[in-house]
Amino acid sequence: MVGVPRSSSCRECLQRRVKCDRGRPECRRCQARGIRCPGYRRLLKFYNRTTGEGDFTDAREYDKRQAAQGNPNAATRVLTLLPRPSIDGALAPSLAGKALDRQTKEVFEYVVQATFPLTFAIFAPRLEPNWLDFIRYHQAAQTEPIERAVRLLNTWYLGVKNKDPAVVEESRFIYGGALRLLAERVANPATRGSDITVATAIMLAVFEMLDPLTPHSWLIHSKGLAELFQLRGARVHAHGFPRTLFITFRSFLLADSFVRGEPSFLEREDWRAANEEANAHEDRAGTSSWIGRMVEQTFNEIALGPGLLCKTTALIKNGEGTGVSRDDLTGRIQRSREIMRNLQRQLASVSGRDVNLKELGQPDDVSGDARASAARCLQALCSGLALLDQLSVLLEADKKRSGEGRVSEVAWGGAIPATSETIEGPFSAEDRPLDWLDQISMSMGTLAISNTS
Q1: Residue 447: C-alpha distances to residues 313, 359, 416 (Å)
Q2: At what angle do helices 326-351 and 368-403 cross, to 10 degrees?
Q3: What is the rounded CA–CA span in Å between residue 5 and residue 182?
Q4: Is 418 helix (H, G, I), strand (E, B) or coil?
Q5: What pLDDT, in 10s, does the model give residues 183-198?
Q6: Which residue ranges form the domains of the chain, and what is each CATH number?
Q7: What is the pLDDT of residues 139-171, one digit of tens each?
Q8: Residues 36-52 pLDDT 10s
């Protein structure tokens, strides 16, 4: 005999085995994940039931859409990992569609784990929902733009993994259709700033970096995403799925600013405050961690880098007629250096294995992923500090030359740090690892800086 569950959690939290706050009429966890809370009643019914129209997903309609896109055999070969028995279509047509949907989500999980392993490991427990939860459970993930973008990344991944050029070429064909859908949503004011639009744009931007049409085509996506993020505002991205979207792409926004030689909007106080608000939200939710707070503080300082580089370059080339004084700029750089050096000391203690963490006031049970995150974050700090050190030297040298009455002339690409021309940076070789975007993400965009000697 089946017993009635004793837990007073809602049915969704009970199924996910997470703590429910038992809010009425909907719990906060379901609200944060963007789904309708099923409530708290326990309905146990025993009855026979046949498949109804509401459950029916006609696999023939899927095949028609594939045929209309060009090459149905290639698309079916990529996504249908297991053969589809004909008896499914005769007895229970919905089984074919459900199996295909399940396999698609499983492949997408492989894509995420392969291309962004450390980023996902560090941030997924702190985000609600994370990407995998969104694709598995969120109603918005059932929309055509998201489904097309997921199929795009799945197809590319399977083509690369199996070394099948035909499948990789099929992913490029899917990209064209997904791009048209995105353009339609961006052109419509009602859908321009929605989560669906931004999520689709991010997945297409990731594909463009993995399989670029031109060396600089990723900049088109990153510029568009920067405008979408600013349109939505900073505070929106402090929690929920908007936070997940922001975390996914923010390092590439900084890399974009370094490449263009422009200040980043992420250096503004409202965006810095949004990161701090996110930390406070994690503390309240019980998902915060020491390494997470270190990463957020580091990101806030790295975000100042493109602006400081841009202002220093302009001042050295054009003098103090640029609207910022040399002394003020030097002071900003020194303050940022002090904060970074303090963060560097704390992160170095975690990334090292021979340090007594208790004596340093830090947890002594830091996981392997946390140590790896600390090491990547430490690399970002080292790059950021190297940039600020060079800028300080340049400003001091320019001050001395100006005092001697000489015209300041420093060629770009000489003493001033240069930046990479493409997103690949140090990963431009053919044998680059599958997780190279993850390394750029964890570097907070600093891999776009190529220091010259």
Answers
A1: 19, 33, 16
A2: 160
A3: 45
A4: strand
A5: 999 999 999 999 999 9
A6: 1-49 (4.10.240.10), 240-423+433-453 (no CATH)
A7: 888 899 999 999 999 999 999 999 999 999 999
A8: 888 877 655 444 544 44
